[in-house]
Amino acid sequence: MQCGFVFTEEVLQTTYCDIELDKPKRDAFVYAIKNHYWYQMYIDDLPIWGIVGEADENGEDYYLWTYKKLEIGQNGNRIVDVNLTSEGKVKLVPNTRIPMSYSVKWKKSDVKFEDRFDKYLDPSFFQHRIHWFSIFNSFMMVIFLVGLVSMILMRTLRKDYARYSKEEEMDDMDRDLGDEYGWKQVHGDVFRPSSHPLIFSSLIGSGCQIFSVSLIVIIVAMIEDLYTERGSMLSTAIFVYAATSPVNGYFGGSLYAKQGGRRWIKQMFIGAFLIPAMVCGTAFFINFIAIYYHASRAIPFGTMVAVCCICFFVILPLNLVGTILGRNLSGQPNFPCRVNAVPRPIPEKKWFMEPAVIVCLGGILPFGSIFIEMYFIFTSFWAYKIYYVYGFMMLVLVILCIVTVCVTIVCTYFLLNAEDYRWQWTSFLSAASTAVYVYMYSFYYYFFKTKMYGLFQTSFYFGYMAVFSTALGIMCGAVGYMGTSAFVRKIYTNVKID
C-alpha cells in the first residue's frame, strides 16, 4: 500500500500497511535488529534516517518501531527541514498482525532553502585538523619533489650535456676508446613505438578524458553545490564524460598515428568503449545480484538502455570527431631523433633498475599524497556522509598530478640512463600502480571501517572500488606518460645527435 500527503496538510496517525508476522519475517526483523540495521528515506531530497527496532536488556525479546512521526519544516512554499521520530514499540511475536502507521506535522521554519542542507554537513569531520594537516603534508611533499627533481635532474643533465659535448670534440679514435654510456646511447630507439600501440594509445586517450572529467566535475561541484540534489553528481559526471569524448579521441588517435598505427577505426572503438564497458559491465554484474536479493540498489532496465544509447549515439560519434582531429592536427611523428631500423639490445642492469621494480615502487609516493583524502572520500561514500569540501579535492588532484609527473620523470631518467628504452609502458604503469595501493587500502577500509558482509554487500563494495581504482590508475598513468613524454622530447632535443 502506498501512502502520501499534501503540502502543508497535517496527517493524524494513519495506518499505511499491516505486517503478517510469520516466522521467516520475524527472523528477518530479529536479524536486522541484532545487527543494528537502519533505513534511509528522502522527502524533497532531504534524507531522514531511522532504526528498525531494538532489543531488551537481556537480548531475549525484540521490538519493532511501528509508528513514524514526521515533522516537516516549511519556509514559504519550500520544504527546508525534516525530522523523523520512531515510536510505537511492539514486541515481535510470531503469527501476529502488526499495523504500521505514520503522521505528518508541519511547522514554520526560518531556515533558508539554500541553507537547508547545512545541518547534514559535518564540519568537525571533514574540516578536522588531520584533514588540513594532510593537505599541508602533501603540499610539502610536492615542494620537496619538485625541488629534488629540478636540482638532481638539472645538475645531472647539465653534466650529461657537458660530457656529450666533450665527446663530440673527440676524434673517432678517442671516441671509440672512450667509455660511452647513458641515455644518449638509446637516441635511436627511445622514440620507437611502444609494444601493443593500439591498447596503449587507447589507455592514454581514456586517461586524458578521465582527468578532464575529474577536473570539470570538481569545478562544477565547487560552484554549484551538487550535494543538495540526489543523483546530481552522477548525472553531471555522465554528461561531462559524454561531452569530453573528443578529448579521448584526440589524444588516443594522435598518439596511435604517431606510433605508425594503421587500424585507427579499431583503436577508436576500443578507446570509446574501454571505460563505459568496464563501468557498465561491473554495474550489470552487481545489478543481477541486487535483483536476486530484491535490493533497492537494482538499476531499472530503462536506465541500462539509456546508458547504452548514450554510448552508441553520443560518445562514439564525438570520439570519432576527436580521433579525426587528432590524426590530422598532431598525428605526425615529428620526433627529434631518427628511429633505428634495428632495435638496440638492452644491456643487463641491476635488479632495482628493472621496469617491473620501477613499476611497483612508482605508485608509493603518489598514493602517500592522497591516502588521507581517500579515507574522507570512502567515508562519504560508504558511511553516507555528505562530501562537500571540493576545494580540498581540487588541491589533492593538483598535488597528485604533480607528484605523479615528478616520480615518473625520475623513474624514466634512471631507466634511460641504464640504456633501457622501454619507457612508454614503464612510465604509464609506474604511475598507474597508484591504483593498486588504493585498492589494497580499500581492503583495509572494508574490514576495519565498515560492517559489511554477505555476497551482495561484498560484491557491491569491491566491484565499484575496482572500477574507481582502475579509473584512477588509468588517469594517473596518462598524466605520468604525458609529463614524461614532454621530458624525454626535451632532453633529446637539446643534445647533438650524429
Descriptive tags:
alpha+beta; 7 strands; single chain; five-stranded mixed beta sheet; 498 residues; elongated; two-stranded antiparallel ribbon
Counting helices, strands and paired strands, the structural category is alpha+beta
Strand content: 5-15%
Residue windows where pLDDT falls under 50 for at least 5 positions? 173-179
* Biggest sheet details: 5 strands, mixed
Query: Which of globular, elongated, flat, extended, rod-shaped describes the shape?
Result: elongated
H/E topology pattern: EHEEEEEEHHHHHHHHHHHHHH
Membrane topology: Multi-pass membrane protein
Protein name: Transmembrane 9 superfamily member
Subcellular location: Membrane
InterPro entries: EMP70
Structure summarized in a few sentences:
The protein is of the alpha+beta class.
How would you describe this structure to a colleague?
It is a multi-pass membrane protein. The chain is of the alpha+beta class and 498 residues long. Helices cover 60% and strands 13% of the residues. The strands form 2 sheets. Strands 1, 4, 5, 6 and 7 form a 5-stranded mixed sheet that branches. Helix 5 crosses helix 8 and helix 5 crosses helix 15. The longest helix has 41 residues. The relative contact order is 0.11.
Q: Mind sketching the topology for me?
A:
Layout: E1 11-21, H1 23-34, E2 38-43, E3 46-51, E4 53-55, E5 62-75, E6 78-91, E7 96-108, H2 123-126, H3 129-169, H4 172-177, H5 197-224, H6 232-243, H7 245-258, H8 264-292, H9 301-330, H10 355-362, H11 364-382, H12 390-417, H13 423-432, H14 434-449, H15 454-493
Helix pairs in contact: 3-11, 3-12, 5-6, 5-7, 5-8, 5-12, 5-15, 7-8, 7-9, 8-9, 8-15, 10-13, 11-12, 11-14, 12-13, 12-15, 13-15, 14-15
